[in-house]
Amino acid sequence: MKFLLDHDVPDDVAFTLESLGHEVTRLREALAVDSRDDEVLAYAGAQKLVLITCNRDDFLEAAKTISHAGLIVLVRRRSRALERAALVRLLDGAGETGIKGNINFA
Question: Is 99 exposed, middle or buried (0-12, 13-18, 19+ CB in 10 A)?
């Protein structure tokens, strides 16, 4: 799958996804640092990238009106390792069909 990581997603998540064979774009590589959330979600949708963010409230609201390729809200946990494990469990359990075009929490 192809992912866009929001600014608030730790870089180690990108490393984990890439090691699993996924394509990862960091937001700072694609858009201006001060891009609005609706612009980020629209960009991800246009590029067919599943957006991963820790910014639950703003993106859930934007997803109501903006077409997207999928949204994963990464829930903060006690450690980065637990966050990465939750994301991998989601990807393994939901598969591409459960992720694409849907809103998921990891």
Answer: buried
- Positive or negative, the Cα torsion across 33, 48, 10, 63? positive
Which tokens in the block code for residue 63? 């997803």
**57 vs 22, 24, 46, 50, CA distance in Å?**
26, 23, 21, 17
Residue 5: strand, helix, or coil: strand
* pTM value > 0.85: yes
H or E element, residue 94: helix 80-99
Task: Check if the beta carbon of residue 94 is closer than 8 Å to that of residue 72.
Answer: no
Share of the chain above pLDDT 70, in %: 100
Q: What are the boundaries of each domain within the chain?
A: 2-105
CATH of domain 2-105: 3.40.50
